[in-house]
Amino acid sequence: MPFSTITLMQFRPDVSRRVRKLKLKWTTYPNTLIAGKQNQYFTIVCKKQGSTQVVVLKVDPLSMRPYLAEIELKSGKRVEVMPYEDYP
């Protein structure tokens, strides 16, 4: 997936409502109804030739942290990261 097609990147404890509400034919619907206290889902949304595609990866939070800055630098786009302070 070329960086130029990416419209949204998120790193959250769940898949956001904004992504779940996209009109997609999910191959596998993300089972994230019970969110944990740590960010564990890295979601990428892209538009390619008029169609929206989504990739949801479940990742280890500590392993993912070092890659966030590199992903932002290479893509030229911001990764929306939910801060830990927002968790109940």
Portion in beta strands: 25-35%
- Determine Rg (CA atoms, Å): 13 Å
Overall structural class, as computed from helix and strand content, comes to alpha+beta
Largest sheet: 4 strands, mixed
Q: How would you describe what is shown here?
A:
The protein has one domain. Helices cover 22% and strands 28% of the residues. The chain is built from two helices and four strands. A four-stranded mixed beta sheet has the order 3-2-1-4, with no helix packed on it. The longest helix has 15 residues. It starts with 5 loop residues before the first strand and ends in a 7-residue tail after the last strand. The relative contact order is 0.29. The model has no long low-confidence stretch (mean pLDDT 83).
Which labels suit this protein?
alpha+beta; 88 residues; four-stranded mixed sheet
Question: Helices, strands, pairings?
Answer:
Blueprint (H helix, E strand, L loop, with lengths): L5 E7 L4 H4 L20 E8 L2 E8 L2 H15 L4 E2 L7
Provide a compact summary of the structure.
The protein is of the alpha+beta class. The chain contains two helices and four strands, in the order βαββαβ.
